[in-house]
Amino acid sequence: MHTADSWYLTVVRTQGLLFIRPAKSWRPVVSVGVVDPHQTYEVALGSDGQNPNLQKPFVLRDVDHSSQLDIQVWHKPSSKNRKKRHLVGSAYVSLGEVIRRQQQPGSDLDLHLNCPPPQKRSPTIKANHQRRTILTIRVYPPSSALSTGITSSGSLEDEDERLSETSSESPSETLVTPTVDGHEDTWPQEAEQTACADGHQLRRRRRRIKGYSLDSEAEDGNSSSSDSHISQHANYPPTPEPYEYSHVGFDEVESPQCTASSLGTPTPLPRYAERAVEDVTLSFAEAVVDSFAPYRELRHAELEADFDKVLGRLLTEWYVVGASLLAIAGIDAAIFGLAPGSILPVDGIAQHIVAIGAVAAGLGIAIISWFLVLYSSANAVKFQRLARDVYGSYFFFCLTCRLPTLCMFLSALALTLFLLIVAWSAAPSAVLVLSFLAGVLVSLQYLVFGCHRAFNFVIWACRGAWRVLGAGRGSAAAADSSRPPRRPHAQPHEERPVEISELRVDEPRADERIPEKAHFPR
Predict the structure, then answer these.
(1) Could you identify which of 9, 99, 234, 315 might form a hypothetical disulfide with 58, taking C-beta atoms 3.0 to 4.6 angstroms apart as the criterion?
(2) Would the pLDDT of 320 be above 50?
(3) How far apart are alpha carbons 101 and 107 in whole angstroms?
(4) By three-state DSSP, how is residue 134 classified?
């Protein structure tokens, strides 16, 4: 039943919603809710965003200009098994603002929706990122509300004229409200009511915007310059921030830390402190046990997750080893069942080897069964309690936890030796060749390493010998060069008598001659 004071609201169409959801075609559902009194209306639009029921508007009862509208656009999956709806856009506006922004009653009004980032990434979406989603509505107010709206709009115009006159006299006290996209954006500024000279008419005075300064002494000096700067640029609308999309989907659940960081609020620090593990020196026996068992891990484990990790690894090993031991035990039992005159002769050393393998397999199966009874259904706390020995350590547990694996190795080795002995009696050359190839392939890295080291040793020995020989030759050559040259030896000749004519007497020098007449003192 419609009354004279009812308001009528019609959802006309939506724009820009096709890029929000990844589906190719879907029908948006628009819900309009009145906050006070509580009323909810819904309409399903077409896949193109148009409303096929324009002749059936929403009837809003008991509302006025101050009533708030909560408009939400939902995406409903087309599949029948999914009934959950996803919010793709919302707007919050009052009826008074809608009437003020409409050019005339019943005209189309575009409302910009606050939408989450798109889930579909493609060049088409990238080109339409800057286009914001719009919801077009029509509001038909009653005649009484329309007259009230005209009166209120006239008073607002008179108030704006008074504010403009005041701003011309003192530009630093008032600011002009900028208009963006053809409508006014209300700024969250605090208004003060001051009385005029007559005491009856009230004038709204906007709060002066004052800059913030780190230096308290320079605050007064900077305020005047900031006011003058604001007054110069007050008539220019602020540059709208670009509408950016994120690659994160709207349905993805964000963690509290991510949500807090996106909203600009401080996030708590992670409660994590790196735990320093002391490297305790192990004794010789403990080091030997730690070489084949998780002794160090159990000794340094403090959290339940550490014990769960060790227990899970041991349980997996026990299950695998148990299955292998069962298979080897079955083979040994089949070998014992062979008749004495069969193709495979089981006597002498082969029989003893098979017996050793069967004993090892049986012991391994028994130990694994006991371990599975104790630890298969244990949690971290129970495992920690059962693994401790009477001395409060994990030494004896680590000494026995790998015993089933050792039993499997012994039984497998015994079975291998038995097969080689039996095959040796039939084809010894094949056993030698295949065993040699298998041994070479298994120990290939050690053979290559040994050959490499031997080759390096030979090169080192050759270089050392060359240096020694070169040093000996160099010292001998240096010794020969330091010695004086040797005279050639005279040839042996026969002695013969010397003739007087061959003798030559050297004449004395002038200073050695004796004067002819020398006077000697008496």
Answers:
(1) 9
(2) yes
(3) 10
(4) strand
